[in-house]
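Subject: Protein record for review, amino acid sequence with backbone structure tokens
Concerning: The relation between a protein's sequence and the shape of its backbone.
How to read it: Take the token row as a discrete description of the fold.
Enclosed: The protein record, placed directly beneath this head.
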Amino acid sequence: MLTAQEFALLAILAQRPGRVLSRDQLLDYASNRDWTPYDRSIDVMIGKIRRKIGDTGPEHRVIRTVRGAGYMFAPSE
């Protein structure tokens, strides 16, 4: 079961399929708290979401990491 914050993050990604969102953008959309440029909470939440939805292994299919850019929701690719 996803937490409310994990669900909100997944919903943000799902509402923008195929679009790469940076950590900063995701923090702005999903968080009502102050953050620092080196905040890794998004990475931790993405990892938890992947495990909970079965998007594991070397090739993530649903939530893709775009190195140096952020994350992208791509469920059908």
